[in-house]
Amino acid sequence: MDSDILTTLKILIIGESGVGKSSLLLRFTEDNFDPEQTLTIGVDFKTKRLNINGDTVKLAIWDTAGQERFRTLTPSYYRDAQGAILVYDVCNRMTFVKLENWLSELEMYSTKSNIIKMIIGNKIDREEREVSRDEGVIFARKHQTLFVETSAKTKDGVQCAFEELVEKIIQTPDLWDSYSPQNNVHVGLKDHPEDSSCSGYCDLL
Fold it and tell me: Coiled-coil intervals in this record (predicted)?
């Protein structure tokens, strides 16, 4: 029964091929990690219920292939999304550089001007890092997005990332139909207790 659901949100996961988008989705929705995860062909789609401040929210999460040949899917993929997660691999600088392109595409095709964006630096479990956390924070600040570093393998930061994104969406009045004024709470670092599960991973910018 969906009668207890506050709202259903469409969340996108975008970024270059091989950065771990599908692994993040699998870890969040099924708490599983497949080291042999195959590249997504076209679009994958999963749903997940999440409890945010006592309310149940249903997430429809879309994971797309990062390869150019699947870009024909783009317009319908972006339509009506309330949140977007842009993923890069902290061990591959080019995937970080390409975030500018993904942000431009999001700007071009998103049908909601105030869509909530989050930058995720994935694969922090690996030692051969090419992009520092500070670089990620600076980039996210520049583009006014949320920022989290994660590891789909160890699950560090993954739950936090989705929770923070959804909380920010719920607190943005125009993004979902069932919004009520009392939910209009500003999100900021001061709103989160120091013992939050996001400690060490999340920056709310």
Answer: none
Full domain range(s) for residue 90: 5-203
Q: Could you read off the pLDDT of 1-32 as tens digits, one per residue? A: 455 877 889 999 999 989 999 899 999 999 88
Is the predicted pLDDT of residue 195 greater than 50, yes or no?
A: no
Burial pattern 6-24, b for ≥16 Cβ within 10 A else e, equals: bbbbbbbbbbbeebbbbbb
Query: Do residues 188 and 132 lie in contact, with contact meaning Cβ atoms separated by under 8 Å?
Result: no
Q: How many domains, in total, are found in the chain? A: 1
Q: Are 115 and 145 a contacting pair, CB within 8 Å?
A: no
CATH number, domain of 43, equals: 3.40.50.300
Work out the end-to-end distance of the chain between its first and last CA atoms, rounded to an integer number of angstroms: 36
Using alpha carbons only, give the angle 185, 118, 124 rounded to the nearest 5 degrees: 125
Question: Which among 27, 20, 154 has a CA at the least distance from the CA of 90?
Answer: 20
pLDDT at residue 156, rounded to an integer: 95
Give kind and range of the element (H or E) at residue 179. none
Residue 17 contacts residue 119 (beta carbons within 8 Å): no
Which residue is listed with tokens 């993904």? 102
If one compares 121 and 78, the residue with the highest pLDDT of the two is 121
Q: How far apart are CA 183 and CA 170, in angstroms?
A: 7
